C-alpha cells in the first residue's frame, strides 16, 4: 500500500494500520524495541517519511528490510526516536531552575539529577554548566540515559557542529549564564569539543523508558520532549516510574508541550512553574 495516496478508502486505511502493527511487532521481536505504545500519528508519520525516501513500495517490503538489514533498522530507529535538542533549550526553564530550585537544592549535602531521554547530551551539559556555576557540581551526580545507543555515544563524545553554537550561546545568555559561553568548549575545524570537566559528574547509560525500571532517590528529573511521542497509557507508566524514582520534595521537569494534567499522577505533584513545566513531588501527609 502506498502511504502517499490521498483519499484512502476505509479498507485501505485498515490494511495500512495492520501492516504498521505487524512491522512494529517485527521490530519488537527482532530488536527488543517496543514502539507499540508510541502515539499513532507520530509513528505513522515517521514510517511514511522513511518509506517515501527509501525506494520501497509498501510496509511489507519495509518489514523485510528491517528484519534482514540492521543498518536500515538503525536509521529507522533514529527516525522513530526524534533526537532534536539544543543546549539551554527553552532558556527560561534554566533561568527558573537557577533562581528558584538551586537555592533549595543547595540545602542538600548531595543531589542526584536524572536526564531521561537525553538525546545527544546537550541538555545534560547545560545542567552540568549550571551546577558548576552555582558551586554545586562537586556535590552532584548526573545520570544521563537514552534508549538509542548511537545517540548515547554522541552524548558521551560531547562534540557538536560549530554552526549551532550561535543558538546555544544565545540560549545560554538568556538562561542567566554567568560566563562567556566559549569558555566551555574548544573549536576544532567545523566542530566544537566541550570541556572535559563538564563530563566529570555525568554517568551515561542505556535505559528504555518502556521497559526498564526506576533510578533511586533522585532530587531532579528532566524528561523533556519525550512524553509527547507516547500514548496516554505509556505516559502514565513513565510518570509513575518518575514518581517512584524521586525523593519526597523532588522535582520533575517536562517539555513545553507536556503536562501532568489528566495523568494518573496529577494529584501527586504540585506545579512549581506552570509555563516552565516544573513540578514538585508532594510529601506524604
Ligand atoms: C526530542 S529528544 C529530547 C531531548 C532532550 N530531552 C530535549 O528536550 O532537548 C527525545 C529523546 O527521547 C529518546 N527516547 C524516545 N523513546 C525513548 C524511550 N522509550 N526510552 C528512552 N529514551 C527514549 C530519543 O532517543 C530522543 O533522544
Helix/strand layout:
Elements: H1 10-31, H2 40-53, H3 59-68, H4 70-81, H5 91-105, E1 111-116, H6 122-133, E2 140-146, H7 149-157, E3 159-161, H8 165-174, E4 185-188, E5 191-194, E6 202-206, E7 218-223, H9 232-245, E8 246-254, E9 269-273, E10 278-281
Parallel strand pairs: 1-2, 1-7, 2-6, 7-8
Antiparallel strand pairs: 3-5, 4-5, 8-10, 9-10
Helix pairs in contact: 1-3, 3-4
Bound molecules: S-adenosylmethionine (SAM).
The site of S-adenosylmethionine (SAM) has 21 residues, from loops.
Bound molecules: S-adenosylmethionine
Helical/strand content category: alpha/beta
Main β-sheet description: 7 strands, mixed
What is the succession of H and E elements?
A: HHHHHEHEHEHEEEEHEEE
Number of strands: 10
Q: Overall mean pLDDT score?
A: 95
> What is the C-level CATH assignment of the largest domain?
Alpha Beta
The CATH superfamily of the largest domain is known as: Vaccinia Virus protein VP39
Question: Globular, elongated, flat, extended or rod-shaped: what is the shape?
Answer: globular
What is the radius of gyration computed over CA atoms, rounded to a whole number of angstroms? 20 Å
pLDDT < 50 runs, ≥5 residues: none
| Helical amount | 40-55%
Provide tags for this entry:
Rossmann fold, alpha/beta, seven-stranded mixed beta sheet, 285 residues, binds S-adenosylmethionine, 2 domains
Question: How would you explain this protein's 3D organization?
Answer:
It is built from nine helices and ten strands. Helix 1 (10-31) packs parallel to helix 3 and helix 3 crosses helix 4 (70-81). It has helices spanning 10-31, 40-53, 59-68, 70-81, 91-105, 122-133, 149-157, 165-174, 232-245, and strands at 111-116, 140-146, 159-161, 185-188, 191-194, 202-206, 218-223, 246-254, 269-273, 278-281. With 285 residues, the protein is of the alpha/beta class. The strands form two sheets. A seven-stranded mixed beta sheet has the order 6-2-1-7-8-10-9. A three-stranded antiparallel beta sheet has the order 3-5-4. A hairpin with a 4-residue loop joins strand 9 and strand 10 (278-281). The model has no long low-confidence stretch (mean pLDDT 95). The chain starts with 9 loop residues before the first helix and ends with a strand. The chain folds into two domains: 10-81; 91-281, 3-Layer(aba) Sandwich (Rossmann fold). It is globular and about 60 Å long. The protein binds S-adenosylmethionine (SAM).
Amino acid at each position: 500500500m502506498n502511504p502517499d495516496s490521498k483519499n484512502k478508502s476505509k479498507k485501505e486505511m485498515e490494511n495500512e494500520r495492520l501492516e504498521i502493527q505487524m512491522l512494529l511487532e517485527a521490530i519488537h521481536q527482532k530488536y527488543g524495541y517496543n514502539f507499540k505504545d508510541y502515539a499513532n500519528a507520530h509513528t505513522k508519520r515517521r514510517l511514511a517519511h522513511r518509506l517515501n525516501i527509501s525506494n520501497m513500495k509498501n510496509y511489507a517490503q519495509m518489514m523485510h528490510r528491517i528484519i534482514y538489514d540492521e543498518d536500515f533498522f538503525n536509521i529507522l530507529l533514529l527516525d522513530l526516536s526524534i533526537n532534536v535538542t539544543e543546549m539551554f533549550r527553552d532558556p527560561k526553564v534554566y533561568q527558573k531552575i537557577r533562581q528558584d530550585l538551586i537555592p533549595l537544592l543547595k540545602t542538600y549535602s548531595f543531589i542526584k539529577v536524572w536526564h531521561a531521554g537525553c538525546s545527544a547530551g546537550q541538555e545534560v551539559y547545560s545542567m552540568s554548566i549550571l551546577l558548576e556555576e552555582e558551586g554545586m557540581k562537586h556535590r552532584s551526580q548526573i545520570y544521563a540515559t537514552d534508549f538509542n545507543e548511537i545517540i548515547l555515544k554522541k552524548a558521551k563524545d560531547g562534540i557538536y557542529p560549530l554552526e549551532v553554537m550561535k543558538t546555544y550561546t544565545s540560549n545560554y545568555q538568556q538562561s542567566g549564564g554567568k560566563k562567556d559561553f566559549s569558555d566551555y568548549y574548544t573549536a576544532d575545524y567545523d566542530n566544537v569539543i566541550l570541556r572535559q570537566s563538564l563530563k566529570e559528574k555525568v554517568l551515561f547509560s542505556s535505559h528504555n523508558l518502556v521497559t526498564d525500571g526506576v533510578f533511586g532517590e533522585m532530587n531532579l528529573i528532566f524528561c523533556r520532549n519525550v512524553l509527547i511521542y507516547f500514548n496516554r497509557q505509556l505516559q502514565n507508566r513513565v510518570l509513575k516510574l518518575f514518581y517512584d524514582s524521586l525523593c519526597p520534595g523532588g522535582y520533575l521537569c517536562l517539555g513545553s508541550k507536556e503536562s501532568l494534567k489528566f495523568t494518573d499522577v496529577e494529584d501527586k505533584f504540585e506545579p512549581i512553574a506552570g509555563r516552565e513545566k516544573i513540578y514538585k513531588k508532594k510529601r506524604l501527609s
